[in-house]
Amino acid sequence: MIEFRLDPDSGVPTYLQLVQQVEHALRLGYLQPGDQLPKVRDVVTALTINPNTVLKAYRELEHKGLAAGRPGQGTFIQATLEQVALPELAGLRRTLLGWLASADKAGLDEDGIVALFTSGLRDFFKSRPGSATEGTAEHGTEGVA
Amino acid sequence: MNVIETSGLGKRYGQSWALRDCTLTVPAGHLAALVGPNGAGKSTLMNMTAGLTIPTSGTTAVLGGQPAGSPAALNGVAFVAQDAPVYRSLSAGDMVHLTRNLNQHFDTAFARTRLDELGIPLNKKAGKLSGGQQSQLALTLALARRPRLLILDEPLAALDPIARQDFLAVVLTAMADDGVSVLLSSHQVAELERVADFLIVLSRARLQVAGEVDDLLAGHRLLTGPTAEADDYARRLTVVQTRRGDAQTHLLVRTTGTADPVPPGWEAHSVSLEEIVMAYLRSPGVSEPAALARVRRSQPTEATR
Fold first, then answer.
1. C-alpha separations of A24 from A32, A61, A89, B96 in Å
2. Are A6 and A17 in contact (CB under 8 A)?
């Protein structure tokens, strides 16, 4: 079972923080299919947040196909996140390190690299047709510059 | 179902209106924060909703159309007035006994168990309890009535940060357990950001804006651009607040959808709940609250999950 935490200064909506923590735990192998997510009531009590926020996070995880609710029991992990095969990952990492070296050579410091990468990432996913990076327009996170 | 429905609700004391022309709908299953400065009409609205004050004009109904103050309404609504009202010379156990005998429904076992968990001895006089314990006692008595709507008037004002968090945790857990709807007034907006999922802003005896927090966040934006173009642009928008500099102007606007085009040279930023509240409090009177009253699909609270 994972334990949620909240970053009050992140600017990321609370429900999305919960979604991202489950995804992160899946990537790192802390959560496996069949594992139960904390009960809504327990998350509410531990974090002092609105139960509808937790329900929204769990609905989002269900919508993404990562979790499923079992009536009367709770919400359970039902899938793993797509993992990129290890050889490909090593190749991508090599390319990224090469890119970082050239950014460094061009005179960008760490903050400049992060800013450039972040804006590039955002533009890339924004321009990709049919993309939904952080949830759909229905959740009100889209269209914010 | 709507837990609160008011129409043209108003209350006048002598020559001055404490609340005017308030038309408001709050769907069930929310924790609704009622915010506004002192004298805005928060307590007046709460007292009329609880059926303790007779309106001068308009109507108010609770729990799916029960007139406020009717027997059905009184049975389903629990109200905790400001400053944790307990009889100081009565013991906690006496308060349980008294509340049980004054109400049709009262879960004595729940009240005893809760007080035990909170470490409040039944034989201790309420006046000797700490501020946090007194408010927990008042909350326990209210929850033991198993209300469908819980109204809390400034419950956090007198509490230290730990006691506040403990108090809110009990309220939110009750929402998760029983699906009770909550109306809570406060002038602290920031600490309600993670707690409230519905917001009602009152100022100068009038309703300024009301709606689900997600809708309010999605429905407002801060637009920044050249002052020379601001007036022209503002005419086409619902502007809540304008902050004008020589060169650059910030417009906090209400948007109709997420796809509103932003003209070239202008930037759009999302705004926090606190910014939205402050904008309405600083520039009261811009709103037609009905515009945001659209209710999205209502989701039942699934307490068992």
1. 12, 12, 17, 47
2. yes
User: Would you state the pLDDT for residue A1?
Assistant: 81
Question: Chain B residues within 8 A (CB-CB) of chain A?
Answer: 29-31, 165, 168-169, 172-173, 175-177, 194-197, 214-215, 217-218, 221, 258-260, 262, 267-270, 299, 301-305
What is this structure's pTM? 0.80
Rounded to an integer, what distance in angstroms lies between the CA atom of residue B137 and that of residue B87?
A: 11
Residue B275, Cα to own-chain centre: how many angstroms?
17
Distance CA B52, CA B182 (A): 17
- 8 Å CB contact between A77 and A66: yes
Summary count for chain B: helices (H), strands (E): 9, 14
User: What pLDDT does residue A79 have?
Assistant: 81
Pairing of β B149-152 and β A67-70: unpaired
For residue B35, what is the enclosing H or E element? strand B31-35
Residues 6+ apart with CB under 8 A from B231: none
Nearest Cα of chain A lies from the Cα of B180 at a distance, in angstroms, of 11
In which residue ranges of chain B is pLDDT below 50? Answer: 288-305
Q: What is the DSSP code (8-state) at residue B195?
A: T
Q: Report yes or no: B283 and B220 within 8 Å, Cβ to Cβ.
A: no
Q: Are B122 and B92 in contact (CB under 8 A)?
A: yes
Question: Residue B267: what pLDDT?
Answer: 87
Residues with Cβ within 8 Å of B128's Cβ and at least 6 positions away in sequence, in order, are: none
Distances in Å between the Cα of B281 and the Cα atoms of B174, B208, B277, B284 are: 31, 8, 6, 6
Q: What is the pLDDT of residue A83?
A: 62
Asked if A50 lies within 8 A of B172 by C-beta distance, the reply is: yes
B178 to chain A nearest CA, in Å?
A: 10
Contact B240, B254 (CB under 8 A): yes
CB count in 10 Å sphere of residue B265: 11
Q: Which amino acid is at B257?
A: G
- What are phi and psi for residue B67, nearest 5 degrees? -60, 135
The percent of residues in chain A predicted with pLDDT above 70, rounded, is 84
Contacts with A48 from chain B: Cβ below 8 Å: 165, 168-169, 172, 194-195
Asked which of A24-28, A58-62, B34-38 is least confident by mean pLDDT, the reply is A24-28
Neighbours of B193 (CB within 10 A): 18
Pairing assessment for the beta strands B238-244 and A67-70 based on DSSP bridges? unpaired
- At residue A131, the pLDDT reads 55
